Amino acid sequence: MTKIKICGITNLDDALFVIRLGVDALGFIFAAESLRQVCPETAREIIGQLPPFITTVGVFVNQGLEYIQNLREFCRLDVVQLQGEETPEFCRLLEGRIIKAIRVRDAESLSVMQDYQVNAFLLDTYQAGQSGGTGKTFDWRLAVQAKEYGTIILSGGLNPQNVREAIGQVQPYAVDTASGVEISPGVKDWKKLEEFVAACGSVKSFMKERD
After folding, report:
1. Among 169, 160, 137, which residue's Cα sits nearest to residue 4?
2. Can you give the residue range of the structural domain that contains 72?
3. From the candidates 14, 75, 91, 124, which is the catalytic residue?
4. Digit-coded pLDDT (tens) for 9-38
5. Structure confidence by residue, pLDDT tens digits, 79-105
6. What is the CATH number for 183?
7. Among 7, 75, 91, 200, which one carries the catalytic annotation?
8. How many domains does the chain contain in total?
9. Catalytic: 7?
10. At what angle do helices 65-75 and 40-47 cross, to 10 degrees?
């Protein structure tokens, strides 16, 4: 089964509801420019009340090495996701598991992936002036090509209406959404969350239908 990450968690109620649905990972955004930014103290408090076996991911955008390492320890983050212009060298200096986001515009966008030694790549939609959270999809055929470079987490405009098709076409390790399951930035729509997780779970039967 494709794993599910819900990003932009800002409060405990949403976090616990997401977990009850069977989601695998929660994303906490620490980038100042994000509408879904959560302060370290709030993230730490939420994470401290989560049950075991849930992966917590801290999302950073062009922030300093020391800041990221300190926040990882302070919030007890399991994984660091780098959403900015972080270099392969920068990634190698970080300890622990790392996800590097790649903003996909065309096939050439994928060429940089060969230089990174990270645990997974998150593929998001390129949009000038934005590091992520565009709410727009990209050509999923490029995501299929990207799988030759490593483990793929598919993001970019995923919602309850299209995630089933996306998983069926790409078969990624995981899918990631934020705006596709929200009432407003950082506030989750529980009905959309239920529909999104249900759609992910129906992919197996969908693929049998295609065969």
Report:
1. 160
2. 3-210
3. 124
4. 999 999 999 999 999 999 999 999 899 999
5. 999 999 999 999 999 999 999 999 999
6. 3.20.20.70
7. 7
8. 1
9. yes
10. 40
